[in-house]
Design a protein that fits this description.
Strand order of the largest sheet: 1-5-4-2-3-6
Distance between the termini: 46 Å
Helix content: 25-40%
Shape: globular
Number of strands: 13
Structural class: alpha/beta
Largest sheet: 6 strands, mixed
Order of helices and strands: HHHEHEHEHEEHHEHEHEHEEEHEEH
Number of helices: 13
Length: about 425
């Protein structure tokens, strides 16, 4: 822990600060609490990288702490002889994310390390793809995921596209601790890096390669997909709207809707305040549009790196990304999208909003699934019987489809996950 007053004075007297940075420091000169908070303890660097509020000081995200961290990564890369393989860099819609990403690229270029930086905001999974696609040794993502607007972060990925392990983060931290914040912090300019071939901008070509790779992993043919299903998506003013809209259009989903108030990037997150898709309040605007809502988190959030789903089944059931495995394995018709089931969530939707299921007076807890045996002979996407407390609003089932009529459900009510359904509906 540093002597915060001495550290504050060192920053205030540094010749590398610009006018706005110096003015920020001057504004807190009589506030001992803020000075102690910002200048007593450095940010902790670990497998999740860095994350903090955006102010001047060793305990915050700013161009100096970002540059110092990047220099530590550069030292590790040079020790492994990875200069030519380089680093892929992405960033989200938060305040200062673009600046921090470019500072990182310039520091790497100054160290003679090649970098690939996206020309605009991108979802986190595309960075992981780029690291592997480009055979880069590492990746950097400037994002604070679902944290409040005052925060930003710095996540590090290794050559496998995953976040770094403990041994790698320890090696980076060891090198960071040997560096002074203000020594050679800026590297070279963006233009000089491009001229020297050390900095390459990534754009539509990488986007196309990423989407094609995602499409290649589809588990169902077009015949098996109900493209009339109604979906409401919100990126929560993050990075997900363009790729999600592109996928929906290219695959022919006609009833795909993005929440208009949350479609465009907004670093202030004015429509949601706290952009956390695990918070049911994040669904408020999506609920107004329809009965099925899918949220992309972040980095939602401005990175769309985590999926949360809400199903309107008489109440709003929020299903976290970690629970999708249950949805893919079991076939309770009202919830299911099992690969082996013919019963899906909704019927084809000729009008908007979808009819789907609406509540009866007081929906009780659905402690047991409906009998699955009645499903196998019915056409795809028709739910033969609603769980207790719910009723259908369609008068007739959709036209039969040849795709799924021979499939049978695989619900196992005695399995260890069975209590999840009752707990989720509570």
């Amino acid at each position: 822990m540093a002597n915060y007053q001495n550290e504050y004075t060192r920053w205030l007297e540094s010749s590398v600060l610009n006018e706005s940075e110096r003015a920020e420091l001057e504004s807190i000169k009589n506030d001992e609490g803020l000075k102690e908070f910002r200048f007593s303890t450095p940010m902790s660097f670990g497998t999740a990288g860095l994350r903090s509020t955006m102010y001047q000081g060793i305990g915050n995200m700013n161009r100096f702490t970002v540059a110092q961290t990047t220099r530590g990564i550069a030292a590790l890369i040079k020790a492994q002889g990875g200069e030519s393989r380089g680093v892929a860099i992405a960033y989200d819609s938060r305040n200062n994310s673009r600046e921090f990403a470019r500072v990182s690229a310039c520091v790497l270029a100054g160290a003679g390390i090649k970098s690939y930086i996206f020309d605009d905001i991108r979802p986190t999974p595309e960075l992981s793809f780029a690291v592997r696609e480009l055979n880069a040794l590492a990746g950097i993502n400037i994002t604070a995921s679902h944290n409040p607007k005052e925060y930003n972060g710095y996540k590090v990925y290794f050559e496998d596209g995953a976040q770094i392990s403990g041994s790698v983060s320890d090696g980076i931290l060891e090198r960071i601790r040997k560096l002074d914040l203000f020594d050679d912090f800026g590297g070279i300019s963006l233009e000089e890096g491009k001229e020297k071939g050390l900095l390459t901008m990534l754009g539509e070509e990488t986007d196309r390669a990423y989407l094609d790779y995602v499409y290649s992993m589809r588990q169902r043919t077009d015949c098996e997909l109900d493209k009339s299903v109604c979906v409401v998506y919100t990126p929560l003013n993050g990075a997900g709207s363009i790729p999600m809209a592109t996928v929906a259009a290219e695959l022919g989903y006609d009833h795909f809707h993005i929440v208009p108030e949350q479609k465009d990037p907004d670093p202030e997150f004015t429509t949601v305040g706290y952009p956390n898709p695990e918070d049911p309040k994040a669904f408020a605007l999506a609920e107004e549009l329809g009965l099925v809502a899918v949220l992309g988190k972040a980095d939602v959030v401005p990175g769309a790196d985590q999926i949360e789903t809400a199903l309107k089944v008489g109440f709003l059931l929020v299903i976290l990304g970690k629970h999708f495995v249950l949805l893919s394995r079991h076939s309770w018709p009202i919830f299911t999208r099992s690969r082996r089931s013919c019963c899906w969530l909704t019927a084809p939707c000729p009008t908007w909003p979808c009819p789907a299921f609406i509540p009866s007076s007081t929906p009780p807890r659905p402690t047991t699934p409906p009998p699955p045996s009645s499903c196998s002979s019915l056409p795809r996407c028709w739910t033969p019987s609603a769980p207790p407390g719910l009723r259908r609003v369609w008068s007739t089932p959709p036209a039969p489809s040849p795709c799924c009529t021979t499939r049978t459900p695989d619900w196992t009510p005695s399995g260890p996950e069975a209590p999840f359904w009752a707990a989720a509906a509570a």
